[in-house]
Design goal:
By secondary structure, the protein is α+β, with helices and mostly antiparallel strands. The protein contains 3 helices and 5 strands. The chain has one domain. The radius of gyration is 14 Å and the shape is globular. It starts with a helix and ends in an 8-residue tail after the last helix.
């Protein structure tokens, strides 16, 4: 497990590397500081894990979506063996959610989620 300071540094670096100043500003406005670490469960299948069943990993909630019970999350381990570290999760449920809402980059998460897309200019 990475220390909280390293996770925060990784998240901030990803935000600062975004090419959109308004998006950076908006994400920083809703940034959870420090990010919330939660132990969450995901459904593992042999397609992307060493066995079928459930497995656990650490998820760090770092942005709450305004007016929603949804958060942007980071997992250093990524979603199973898929390596997708950036995800969209329900804030009140202790699971990773669907593998289709986990991405290889923060910008992919922002674009595909539909949240904050008005700031992509």
């Amino acid at each position: 497990m990475m220390p909280q300071e390293e996770i925060m540094s990784t998240i901030l670096s990803a935000i600062e590397s975004l090419d959109f100043p308004h998006l950076r500003s908006e994400l920083l406005k809703y940034l959870i500081t420090p990010p919330l670490r939660e132990r969450r469960v995901f459904v593992a299948t042999k397609a992307f894990w060493s066995h079928s069943g459930t497995a656990e990993g650490d998820v760090w909630l770092f942005v709450m979506i305004p007016g929603q019970q949804i958060a942007f999350a980071y997992s250093n381990e990524g979603y199973a063996l898929l390596g997708r570290r950036w995800g969209l999760v329900w804030a009140e449920q202790l699971h990773y959610g669907d593998p289709d809402v986990w991405y290889e980059s923060l910008i992919d998460l922002v674009v595909d989620s539909g949240y904050f897309v008005d700031y992509l200019n």
